[in-house]
Amino acid sequence: MQPEAAEIFEAQRPRLLRLAYRMLGSNAEAEDMVQEAFLRWHRAEGIDNPAAWLTRTVSRLCLDQMKSARSRRETYPGTWLPEPLIEAEDDALRPDNLTLSLMMALERLSPLERAAFLLHDVFGQPLDEVAATIDRSPAATRQLASRARAHVQVDRPRYEIPRDAGAELARAFFEACKSGDASALGAMLAEGATLHSDGGGKVHAYPNIIRGADNLIRLLLGLQRKFGDQMRFLEATMIDGLPGFVSRLDGNLQTTAIEITDGRITALYVTRNPDKLSRVVTH
Fold this sequence. Notes:
Layout: H1 3-24, H2 27-43, H3 50-74, H4 100-106, H5 111-122, H6 127-134, H7 138-155, H8 163-179, H9 182-188, E1 189-198, E2 210-211, H10 213-227, E3 232-239, E4 242-249, E5 252-261, E6 264-271
Parallel strand pairs: 1-6
Antiparallel strand pairs: 1-2, 3-4, 4-5, 5-6
Helix pairs in contact: 1-2, 1-3, 2-3, 3-6, 4-7, 5-6, 5-7, 6-7
């Protein structure tokens, strides 16, 4: 490979990794897809538009991967969550406005709907290029993106919280859990709040979504009675666009992302599967 070809690919790598992660919800799988695209790039010749060619190649690789990933998730132990994406301190570095909760909404789409939405609405590809990538007509591609957009808009959070306020809320929520303060938890949780917990069969997690503030408070108070002296707050952070924190419970590392609507917690996403936490670095 010529040095300039390697430089072209490296310039595209961050964008390709973001695309593959949004398609698959896994950084490890995203890296595999981008590496395979690199090998194909190495063998290719006469490419007029490298960015478009690489986007198309990674997208098609991800579509194939999504078919097997979907079948694996049907047998996944308990709730599946995307790998937590711990974000940089600078909000300006966020290249898209997707959040973990919106990633969950994308899981309900077909692979083609997800690809059409991400490529067109999030990564800004022209519709005819998206159609060529997913091997569908422009009209069919427009319909796929429209259906996906309708699903995502339904689940789009209606409340954004500044980073500092999010960190303050994350710490306050943790302290209420650790101290067993039912009143404080009740004030923070929306009536229909949910808790999603992913242990991947490796560590204890709740296999089903817990629904309702009263049920969540009982569960959190039970954890406090059992593990209160083993709860460790490590740091507040942003997790895929949502405020959250990294902590330890019963010795196991976990991340908690917090979805806020109208000032109340509407969803908690707790990732405990150690396979999904290998990239989490605490300071």
